[in-house]
Recover the amino acids of this structure.
């Protein structure tokens, strides 16, 4: 079995599973946020039971619209707080957490081998830690609140074997954009995507999270990386006890639907052009695209490693006048670390606006929406029509390095061309 | 369980941001969500769908975010069933869970156009275009999913199962 199959077998009390089988899996953790939680609670109340199955295994994180930007959202936040209190569920409020997919591993809810479901499509991010994690809807989350179980079809798996060394300012974001451009936005629908090879083994947790985060953008059920020393190093100070993770390796004779070999030695910075995540081009092929806004943040690229690379490019320089540059750390922890390292000063000196940890403009909820005819280059994960505001705005997705370089020049720019 | 209605047809990769833009996610009442269904592509959609229609989509219908507000908006706008070449997985599950029938059917986009009259037999998976007299076989839903749909959604289904215990 491969790693995903092993986790699903264990979670459903079977010695073995194979692709296509439907299993009833025990869930280790379920997460909802401020835009999916309210519907989940409404649905939960209709089931007719009083208590969630295990209050320690339910997490609520306010992140999409914090601090509340409207009375409507304030009311929803209030409702979530009330439910959390009644049920004795941990809720990460304004100032405590940040973007759910950053907070979950930071606060120790993610461990290798777990089954984690979240009412957010980017829940697949936790595959970076060798967990099986997938997005669900609000009603399904309510059912998990009640039962602690979920039915899952064991997916076929596509393996991406990645070798080679990134050039300077070419990042895991460029790799995952390249992969999505290659397989297409429905190229992995219903499937598991497993990332292996020396490049992934040498990659930071932040980079692995970026890869797994965007697995859903090719339709995948989950993205996953085998846990190793890097994983345990990140988790050791955050979880009570690291359990044995050595079983979480894909067997040599594991079944894969296909294996895709990639070498990153010559990979250029990649850009997903409007309005599909698979409309991916190398930066040199994009041409002259002037921008109105540059956004560095989101569950895809709001981590300290992302801010470091952006700060390295922006240090001592000014963003082009007229380019609104937003920097949003993914969590309070990332924000605090960025202050310690002097990165926030670099951003403010450069003329960027640093906001508190939130999903912000990524989904056009609040902070930094786009007007018609405007162009944004963003480190986030979706460039769909209307995603970041007006349906007549255009969004280009790129790495933190590319976004920072573009903010300086005022148009899409190859970060390798910016002098350090 | 048979669904009949006229068709409104959409293209490939219809994402949840065009089905229900992010700025409306703070709406809780499904009737309010319905007013913004498909707003990103066709602001007149709720008006057209009101009489009860069947949506036909191409590949990867409902891709993107896990927002259940997207299928909810469609359902309450008057969509009785969605037939697509393929679906994004979270959207597919969400639709079933809220009691909105969804069925995959390869080749469907080739045999229907806007306002054709369609019959979808969910039990057998057979889809008939009554305007042109053409039929196709869709992917039959497994019995446990049919049960969720006939119960009216996952919550109703769960309530029934828990009461039995």
């Amino acid at each position: 079995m491969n790693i995903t199959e092993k986790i699903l077998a264990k979670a459903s009390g079977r010695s073995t599973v194979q692709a296509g089988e439907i299993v009833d899996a025990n869930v280790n953790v379920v997460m909802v946020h401020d835009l999916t939680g309210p519907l989940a609670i409404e649905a939960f109340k209709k089931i007719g039971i009083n208590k969630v199955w295990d209050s320690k295994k339910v997490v609520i994180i306010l992140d999409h619209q914090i601090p509340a930007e409207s009375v409507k959202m304030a009311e929803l936040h209030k409702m979530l707080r009330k439910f959390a209190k009644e049920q004795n569920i941990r809720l990460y409020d304004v100032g405590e957490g940040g973007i759910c997919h950053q907070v979950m591993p930071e606060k120790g809810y993610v461990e290798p081998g777990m089954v984690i479901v979240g009412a957010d499509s980017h829940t697949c991010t936790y595959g970076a830690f060798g967990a099986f994690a997938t997005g669900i809807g609000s009603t399904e989350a309510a059912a998990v609140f009640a039962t602690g179980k979920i039915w899952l079809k064991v997916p076929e798996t596509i393996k991406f074997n990645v070798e080679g060394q990134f050039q300077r300012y070419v990042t895991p974001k460029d790799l995952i954009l390249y992969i999505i451009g290659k397989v297409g936005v429905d190229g992995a629908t219903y499937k598991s995507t497993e990332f292996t090879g020396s490049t992934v083994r040498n990659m930071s947790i932040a980079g692995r999270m970026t890869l797994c985060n965007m697995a859903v953008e090719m339709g995948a059920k989950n993205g996953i990386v085998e846990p190793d020393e890097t994983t345990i190093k990140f988790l050791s100070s955050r979880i009570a006890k690291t359990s044995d993770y050595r079983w979480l390796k894909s067997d040599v004779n594991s079944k894969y639907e296909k294996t895709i070999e990639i070498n990153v030695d010559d990979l250029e910075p990649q850009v997903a052009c409007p309005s599909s995540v698979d409309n991916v081009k190398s930066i040199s092929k994009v041409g002259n695209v002037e921008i109105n806004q540059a956004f560095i943040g989101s569950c895809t690229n709001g981590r300290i490693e992302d801010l470091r690379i952006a700060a390295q490019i922006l240090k001592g320089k000014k963003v082009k006048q007229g380019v609104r540059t937003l920097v949003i750390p993914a969590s309070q922890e990332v924000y605090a670390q960025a202050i310690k390292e002097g990165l926030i000063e670099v951003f403010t000196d450069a003329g960027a606006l640093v906001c508190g940890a939130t999903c912000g403009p990524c989904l056009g909820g609040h902070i930094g929406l786009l007007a018609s005819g405007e162009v944004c280059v963003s480190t986030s994960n979706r460039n769909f029509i209307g995603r970041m505001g007006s349906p007549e705005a255009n969004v280009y997705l790129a790495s933190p390095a590319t976004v920072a370089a573009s903010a300086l020049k005022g148009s899409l720019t190859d970060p390798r061309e910016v002098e350090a | 369980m048979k669904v009949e209605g006229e068709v409104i047809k959409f293209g490939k990769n219809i994402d949840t941001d065009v089905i229900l833009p992010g700025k409306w996610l703070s709406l809780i009442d499904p009737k309010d969500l319905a007013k913004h269904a498909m707003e990103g592509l066709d602001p007149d959609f709720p008006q057209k769908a009101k009489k009860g229609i069947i949506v036909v989509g191409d590949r990867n219908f409902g891709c993107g975010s896990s927002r259940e507000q997207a299928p909810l908006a469609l359902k309450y706008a008057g969509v009785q069933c969605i037939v697509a070449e393929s679906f994004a997985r979270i959207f597919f599950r969400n639709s079933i869970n809220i009691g909105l029938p969804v069925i995959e059917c390869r080749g469907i986009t080739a045999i229907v156009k806007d306002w054709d009259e369609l019959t979808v037999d969910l039990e057998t998976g057979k889809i008939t275009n009554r305007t042109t007299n053409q039929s196709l076989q869709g992917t039959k839903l497994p019995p446990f999913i049919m049960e969720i749909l006939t119960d009216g959604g996952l919550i109703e289904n769960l309530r029934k199962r828990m009461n039995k215990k």
